[in-house]
Amino acid sequence: VGGVPMIAADMVSFVQSDLVLFGSAILGIMLVVLAIIFRRVRWVVIPLVTCGCAVVVMLGLLGALDWRMTVISSNFVSLQLIITLAIVVHLVVRYREFQQTLPQADHRTLIKETIRTKFVPCLYAALTTIAGFISLLLCDIKPVIHFGWMMSIGILLSMGLTFLLFPSGLILLKQPNQPSEPKYFKFSL
């Protein structure tokens, strides 16, 4: 066995391996870091669900559009997880800030203010990141061009899903207690 069929089979196995290995590693690291930083189940689950949904929707879109994965574009899963997580962490931190500075505010008000104050900054961050990935379209290499499109669309999806799923998930849960800094590692809902 040799030639083009062997190279194609090897490429497919490399891409599948990268998707599983790097995607799993990023999810595992995200879980541990979120648990250490926020020490609450809700602040681990909501970001992970949002990140997972963004990647699954993007993979479904790529499948529907029949865009094939290459060695270059297989890295989009890890990058999309990281970018989505960054947006969600901004929202979590802002919610917790409002929770401390506005202790009399109800749960819905805190969520509404979090979304209102973070939408424009997150939009600008997403647009500048998209501009960077759009610059890949100027390249003459097809897989690099496809990667630029994948990441640009993925970032838009991440932005939209984050601002949909974060408030939706949070509104289903009761208002958490005000964040505190325990002297020991405590993990609660």
Summarize the structure.
The chain contains 5 helices and no strands. With 189 residues, the protein is mainly alpha-helical.
Please describe what this structure looks like:
This protein has helices at about 5-40, 40-65, 75-100, 105-135, 140-170. The protein is mainly α and about 190 residues long. The chain is elongated. The mean pLDDT is about 85.
Radius of gyration: 19 Å
Contiguous helical run count:
5
Helix content: over 70%
Q: Summarize the biggest pleated sheet.
A: none
Order of helices and strands: HHHHH
User: How many strand segments?
Assistant: 0
Task: Name the beta content range.
Answer: under 5%
Distance between the termini: 56 Å
Structural class: mainly alpha
Question: What do the pLDDT scores average to?
Answer: 86
- Morphology call: elongated
Which runs of at least 5 residues are low in confidence (pLDDT < 50)?
Answer: none
